[in-house]
């Protein structure tokens, strides 16, 4: 049946976002209704979903009729959004993620120096060192032991690197922060638990700020404190904490899920893994294939219409929110939704949307790519006979409206190569 897209509205969502459903199966259903569709989020919060690559790029670019500032979200300003709604704490944060124009440029500029190509390249030796230490720990478990590679390898590597970048070196604080982030992003906990996690993570970050203010270390947190204390007032206290929160979260969560998904892609395509180990294919190309096949972010929240705006044939009313379906759009951008992992097919990966696009393109994308390439190379070089410990059909996805990945990746490492 042909759908009259001009009559679509938030009053009649075409579907509900189901965090328990497979990401791309749901996306394919939504795309049948068009590139921009009205959907119901948890707790019946209504939003438009930009699901095609063209629609996603339109929303992510510096669109004059759209804003990243949640003060333009009409339902929120009317008090219609529950206090403990999933992701609300991040959506309301005073960080560059939720800022436009001059404010966005100011906040982004304060942290961008830590993510220049030169600084990222300088981190490579430390990434190799941490990767080697983690692999040594895995090897100690024995060749036939079953290990959750996400928990023991894909999770600690990017967390350690981003925390060191920020000067958060206490392992207990690192793990507390990870636990708080996991709870905040979960749809399986109560609103009270989510609020407690938000308070807990702010406590960890406030403690970090106090430590670095007392003893600056030349890390990114110390630099942000200097900006806060500068007499020109380039940063407020809340902007400082919110900036730390969003970069620490994005700086490890995307890499964890990208790395886990790419390992799965290689384990289930042994011919491509062999080509990598023989030097016929490059590890950075495997990273790009993994990002295209299964982007680490399911959805990006949100943009808001400053005035009635026509997007891909539908009218988004002033104050209505738009969710960007990054995982779906990244697969769809070549006219199909190819459920394939093919390192050789590089034409599909030239304009990745896995890390967004436009002014808010992820600052840490280059770091995530470098971490993944080093990690994959060292992991499979050390354990070339690694295999899944369970059938692929038994792997369970993360239950989340925002994150796209696996809850766990049980593997048998096999004998290490020396």
UniProtKB/TrEMBL annotation:
MF terms (GO), sorted A to Z: heme binding; iron ion binding; monooxygenase activity; oxidoreductase activity, acting on paired donors, with incorporation or reduction of molecular oxygen
Superkingdom in the source lineage: Bacteria
Gene3D superfamilies named among the record's database cross-references: Cytochrome P450
Keywords in alphabetical order: Heme, Iron, Metal-binding, Monooxygenase, Oxidoreductase
Region (Disordered): 1-21
Heme in keyword set: yes
KW Metal-binding (keyword) present: yes
Family: Belongs to the cytochrome P450 family.
PANTHER family named in the record: CYTOCHROME P450 YJIB-RELATED, P450, PUTATIVE (EUROFUNG)-RELATED
Full protein name: Cytochrome P450
Protein source organism: Streptomyces aurantiacus
């Amino acid at each position: 049946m042909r759908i009259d897209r001009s009559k679509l509205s938030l009053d009649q969502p075409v579907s509900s976002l189901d965090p328990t459903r497979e990401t791309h199966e749901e996306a394919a259903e939504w795309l049948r209704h068009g590139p921009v569709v009205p959907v119901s989020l948890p707790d019946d919060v209504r939003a438009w979903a930009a699901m095609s690559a063209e629609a996603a790029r339109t929303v992510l670019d510096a669109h004059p009729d759209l804003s990243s500032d949640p003060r333009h979200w009409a339902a929120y300003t009317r008090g219609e959004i529950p206090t403990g709604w999933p992701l609300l704490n991040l959506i309301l944060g005073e960080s560059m993620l939720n800022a436009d124009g001059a404010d966005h440029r100011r906040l982004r500029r304060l942290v961008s120096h830590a993510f220049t190509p030169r600084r990222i390249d300088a981190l490579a030796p430390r990434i190799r060192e941490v990767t080697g230490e983690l692999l040594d720990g895995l090897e100690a478990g024995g060749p036939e032991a079953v290990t959750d590679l996400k928990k023991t390898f894909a999770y600690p590597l990017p967390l350690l690197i981003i925390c060191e970048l920020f000067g958060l070196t206490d392992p207990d604080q690192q793990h507390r922060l990870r636990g708080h982030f996991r709870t905040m992003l979960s749809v399986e906990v109560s609103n009270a638990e989510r609020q407690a996690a938000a308070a807990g993570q702010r406590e960890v970050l406030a403690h970090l700020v106090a430590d670095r203010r007392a003893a600056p270390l030349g890390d990114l947190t110390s630099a942000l404190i200097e900006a806060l204390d500068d007499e020109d007032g380039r940063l407020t206290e809340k902007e400082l904490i919110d900036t730390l929160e969003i970069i620490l979260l994005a700086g490890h969560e995307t890499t964890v899920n990208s790395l886990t998904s790419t390992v799965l892609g290689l384990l289930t395509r042994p011919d491509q893994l062999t080509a990598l180990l023989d030097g016929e294919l490059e590890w950075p190309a495997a990273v790009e294939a993994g990002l295209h096949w299964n982007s680490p972010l399911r959805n990006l929240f949100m943009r808001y219409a400053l005035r009635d705006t026509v997007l891909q044939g539908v009218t988004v009313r002033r104050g209505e929110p738009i969710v960007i379906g990054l995982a779906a759009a990244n697969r769809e951008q070549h006219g199909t939704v190819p459920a394939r992992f093919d390192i050789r097919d590089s034409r599909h990966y030239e304009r990745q949307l896995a890390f967004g696009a436009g002014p808010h393109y992820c600052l840490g994308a280059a770091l995530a790519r470098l971490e993944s390439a080093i990690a994959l190379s060292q992991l499979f070089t050390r354990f070339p006979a690694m295999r899944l410990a369970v059938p692929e059909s038994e792997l369970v996805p993360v239950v989340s409206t925002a994150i796209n990945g696996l809850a766990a990746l049980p593997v048998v490492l096999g004998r290490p190569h020396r």
